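Tip: read the tokens left to right.
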């Protein structure tokens, strides 16, 4: 009997240890009192730094609402996009919330929530190419020069679908867009929501926006592999805000109202 109880105690202790080791990102955030989210704040209007140095945006507001529902504070951890997955895997923050497209390649390294929005790649082209370039297929020629942001789906798509064109990537979107404005590149390949804003900020007549998306890209929150409890919480949160009006209010603030642009000037 004593041996049985001893073995039972060892088993229970081991189970508790395993359970503790498997505590997920959401549980850790609740215990800490802060939800830490890795993001590269250069992706308008999802996450960006305003003139006061604050990180704001559509995805930021969704994550702030999530943190509020957990009863914790929200903390944005500014991280370069091409290093954001390694940073998550080395515990620099709890989750990725940085306009990340759910791709099969990334899904081999991360678990993802359900998408919170679906976007697609579009083109900003030099105004001189009006009539010459009508779709991404027209750019698939070695005489053209493409640009996008390093580590993004825009870069992947440029190399995969428009591979005959020359490509040069940048650490941030603004530099890449300015290459097109200044005639150093022929087209900027990036997500539709960003390009809608970028063409306005560049100034009237400086760029042409081919607004028809040519890819399907669900954006989602990324977490470490195996963190299914956190995925469950996030998915339930997304369902809730999409039915109680919160999601629509946040969406309209950033996509239908451009007042926030004044905060960036």
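Filled-in amino acids:
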């Amino acid at each position: 009997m004593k041996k049985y109880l001893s073995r039972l105690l060892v088993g229970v202790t081991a189970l508790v240890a395993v359970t503790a080791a498997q505590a997920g990102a959401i549980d850790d955030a609740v215990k800490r009192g802060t939800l830490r989210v890795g993001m590269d704040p250069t992706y308008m209007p999802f996450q960006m730094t305003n003139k006061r140095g604050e990180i704001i945006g559509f995805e930021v507001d969704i994550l702030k609402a999530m943190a509020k529902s957990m009863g914790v504070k929200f903390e944005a951890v500014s991280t370069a996009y091409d290093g954001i997955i390694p940073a998550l895997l080395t515990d620099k923050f709890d989750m990725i919330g940085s306009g990340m497209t759910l791709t099969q390649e990334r899904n081999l390294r991360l678990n993802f929530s359900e998408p919170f929005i679906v976007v697609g790649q579009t083109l900003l082209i030099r105004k001189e190419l009006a009539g010459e370039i009508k779709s991404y297929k027209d750019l698939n020629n070695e005489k053209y020069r493409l640009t996008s942001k390093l580590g993004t789906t825009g870069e992947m798509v440029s190399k995969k679908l428009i591979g005959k064109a020359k490509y040069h990537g940048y650490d941030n979107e603004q530099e890449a867009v300015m290459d097109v404005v200044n005639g150093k590149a022929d087209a900027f390949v990036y997500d539709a929501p960003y390009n809608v804003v970028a063409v306005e900020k560049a100034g009237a007549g400086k760029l042409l926006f081919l607004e028809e998306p040519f890819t399907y890209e669900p954006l989602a929150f990324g977490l470490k592999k195996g963190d299914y409890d956190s995925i469950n919480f996030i998915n339930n949160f997304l369902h809730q805000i999409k039915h109680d009006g919160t999601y629509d209010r946040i969406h309209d603030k950033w996509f239908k109202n451009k007042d926030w642009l004044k905060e960036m000037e």
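The two ends are 75 Å apart (CA to CA). Residues 18-118+218-264 form a domain with the D-Maltodextrin-Binding Protein; domain 2 fold (CATH 3.40.190.10).
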